[in-house]
Design goal:
By secondary structure, the protein is α/β, with parallel strands linked by helices. 38% of the residues lie in helices and 14% in strands. Strands 2-3-4-1-5 form a five-stranded parallel β-sheet, sandwiched between helices. Strand 3, helix 5 and strand 4 form a beta-alpha-beta unit. Helix 1 packs across helix 2 and helix 3 runs parallel beside helix 4. It is globular and about 40 Å long.
């Protein structure tokens, strides 16, 4: 049977959609988190499809599983038409020079990037990019920390969501 079988997660999708469509620049990363099986990838994929329908051609969706920081930088540089870049600073410059409307960047499975160093570099680059005018960044990841999910060594904290009450957090393990 063909058709759309996606159900639920309306509040999460509404928050992501609002983030991507915001009139002002959020200036930070929207973090979608939860335990394995919570639906992070499904929600981010659905949000990407909805964004593609509303804003065709203005965004990049990147799956970080087994990927590297440099692979992300190359993909985003190619997307914005920068022939070559030399690190995150060049990438930020290339993105800043892009004159079109808002640029949407959605990254899934940050916690599954190739190495710990790649995860941390990606988190840092995404956090920096989110501060650029006209850029909207949404990242789905598990916290990857041994203590509190908001511990300073975890990915959620590194992306800028520092507490359960953070305005840039969609926590799929909690209602609604």
């Amino acid at each position: 049977a063909a058709g759309d079988l996606f159900r639920g997660r309306a509040a999460a999708l509404e928050k992501i959609g609002g983030w991507l469509d915001a009139v002002g620049d959020p200036g930070r990363v929207l973090v979608v988190t939860g335990q394995p099986g919570a639906g992070k990838s499904a929600v981010l994929s659905r949000a990407a499809l909805l964004a593609e329908h509303d804003h065709p051609g203005v965004g990049l969706v990147f799956h970080a599983r087994q990927s590297t920081h440099s692979a992300f930088c190359e993909a985003l540089a190619e997307f914005v038409g920068a022939p070559s870049i030399n690190g995150a600073m060049d990438l930020a410059d290339a993105v800043s020079r892009r004159s079109a409307g808002p640029l949407l960047v959605l990254v899934d499975a940050l916690d599954e990037a190739s190495t710990r160093l790649d995860r941390h570099q990606l988190a840092s680059t995404l956090k920096d990019l989110a501060q650029l005018s006209g850029l909207r960044v949404v990242v789905a990841t598990r916290p990857l920390t041994t203590g509190s999910q908001f511990a300073t060594d975890g990915l959620v904290y590194r992306l800028g969501a520092t507490s359960a009450l953070a305005g840039n957090l969609v926590h799929l393990d909690h209602a609604p």
